[in-house]
Write a structure and sequence with these properties.
15 strands, 5-stranded parallel sheet, Diaminopimelate Epimerase, Chain A, domain 1, globular, 6-stranded mixed sheet, 18 helices, alpha/beta, 47% helix
Length: 521
């Protein structure tokens, strides 16, 4: 083949790829509701116009991914900017946020993965600052009042809020905080299409893929766009954390989602598991990881794992999420925690839940030193989760009307929600009622208790809405005591609240009564 012929062939392939990508990009934009697109256009103008920006975001994987997307977008636009992760926007933290903004003097402030439920605090403390020309809120949580309507007509003109709930979509399944941030980045520049991988990392961390059953809504569109661009690849495989990184025996020894009775935490049993199945754990001097296995080996191992689960739980639903869609980040280094969306999101969660979210942001932005530090935090995070689950198995939980309660003073407030979610996913706690986790081991030794709630999808379909219940109870206590007793927010299936410890029992009693009524209906 002559050079010219080869050159022409490669050129034809390139232009075909460009045409495919442009077609996919056009389809992607068409999937965005017009009302949301108009807000994103306005927000993109504010980004381009801004000279100094301060971006705030949540500490979980979704919030960390969102903040990294915004930071990379601002860096590429050559803006002066500062960023910071915040555990939550409440009456305490907003004072520090206001102080940070007044000190830095940005003319644009961006909030991601929170803000919708705290709009009154943002209006009072941030919009009133003279140097601030505009505020952008990129959120996916339900408004505090439960009314999901665009707010540009009844809020100050300097505020732009983008939230899927206000455009006929679900913030629990259709689009995450990182996904909302990605939409803004894409409206600012098409060159930000590579940030689709971080959008899906955030959505994965927020469990928006139905525990491996696949994404829907705009999340699905982002996956397809990232796939067309060469940044993402969807594969059907084992959904456990560590399939790209962990030596085979440790893949099972540290498995917590689901918890594997007789294998999780039992090193010798994990070695024996693979030996009994005649699966080599080493290749020469190197440990084999899951992605190294042949298809026949994977099939034998999966059948063995499912058998272990069914023998203990006697419930086939527990095994449903063991195999599912896994997303590979094609441009990230092989056999690292950054190669798969699930492992990447778990790494970011580990940073946030160990109170070092800034490390996760730097990992997303390509800092190799941060990645080394993040892996250390990940080891600590997995150990903390395994310890909390073992305590839960040994000490049990409390049954209340309409809900189950886990009160563990040793579990930090940053992981109590993850623990109770994993406990129900592994059937350590039944799924016929919501489960409420309580932590008094709070960030910065706060005087408030942290309460996290989880409800199975089937309960939400029956009308259970944890976010509504938590907000209603908080409003009752605040009004009754004529002072701030509790603040709440979240989603129908996953919500949280900060409560004065002296009113914790009262909060639980009210929540129990309301949930029992909803379950009764």
């Amino acid at each position: 083949m002559s050079y010219l012929t080869r050159h022409q062939r490669e050129a034809n392939l390139y232009y075909a790829l460009v045409d495919t990508l442009l077609g996919k990009m056009e389809s992607f934009y068409e999937s965005i509701p017009e009302s949301m697109g108009n807000l994103l256009l306005d927000a993109a103008k504010e980004v381009r116009r801004a000279k100094r920006v301060f971006a705030f975001s949540h500490i979980d994987a979704d919030g960390i991914s969102a903040l990294a997307i915004i930071s990379l977008m601002l860096e590429r636009e050559e803006k002066e900017f500062e960023w910071k992760n915040v555990h939550q926007i409440n009456s305490e933290s907003i004072v520090q946020i206001e102080e940070d903004v007044r000190k830095y003097k940005p003319n644009l402030v961006i909030f991601s993965d929170f803000g919708t439920g705290q709009m009154s605090l943002i209006e009072k403390h941030i919009l009133s600052i003279e140097d601030v020309d505009s505020v952008i809120v990129l959120d996916h949580h339900l408004p505090t009042n439960g009314i999901a309507e665009p707010t540009q007509d009844n809020t100050p003109s300097k505020l732009i809020e983008v939230n899927p709930h206000q455009h006929g979509m679900s913030g629990s399944y259709d689009l995450s905080g990182a996904g909302t941030a990605f939409l803004l980045a894409l409206f600012v520049s098409l060159n930000n299409v590579d940030l689709s991988e971080l959008a899906i990392v955030g959505a994965t961390g927020d469990l928006q893929d139905y525990y491996g059953r696949g994404f829907v809504g705009l999340n699905k569109e982002i996956v397809e766009l990232g796939g067309s661009s060469g940044f993402l690849e969807v594969m059907r495989d084992l959904t456990f954390f560590g399939i790209h990184t962990r030596p085979l025996p440790y893949l099972l020894q540290y498995a917590t989602d689901p918890y594997l009775p007789g294998l999780t935490g039992a090193e010798d049993a994990c070695y024996a598991f693979f030996q009994d199945l005649d699966i080599d754990m080493r290749s020469g001097d190197e440990w084999r990881v899951w992605v190294d296995l042949e298809s026949s080996e994977k099939q034998r191992a999966i059948q063995g794992i499912i058998q272990v689960v069914l023998e203990h739980y006697n419930d086939p639903r527990v095994a449903q999420g063991i195999i599912g869609d896994t997303i590979v980040l094609s441009q990230r280094p092989p056999k690292t925690e950054m190669r798969s969306a699930k492992e990447f999101s778990t790494l970011l969660n580990a940073c946030g839940r160990n109170r070092r979210p800034e490390v996760g942001v730097r990992v997303c932005m390509g800092d190799p030193e941060a990645f080394t530090e993040g892996k250390t935090l990940l080891q600590q995070h997995r150990a903390n989760l395994a310890s909390a689950l073992r305590r839960l198995e040994e000490e049990g939980y409390t049954e209340m009307q309409g809900m189950y309660v886990v009160n563990d003073p040793q579990t930090p407030d940053t992981i109590i929600g993850i623990v109770i979610g994993m406990a129900q996913g592994s059937m350590i706690i039944p799924t016929d009622r919501p489960v409420i986790g309580i932590s008094t081991n709070t960030t910065d030794d706060s005087p408030l208790a942290k309460l996290s709630g989880r409800a199975h999808k089937r309960l939400v379909e029956r009308g259970v809405n944890l976010k509504e219940v938590f907000v209603e109870v908080a409003d009752i206590l605040n009004e009754k005591n004529e002072t701030l007793i509790a603040e709440a927010g979240g989603h129908p299936m996953a919500a949280g609240a900060f409560i004065q410890k002296s009113h914790l029992d009262e909060f639980l009693d009210l929540a129990s009564s309301k949930l029992a009524k909803r379950l009764g209906r």
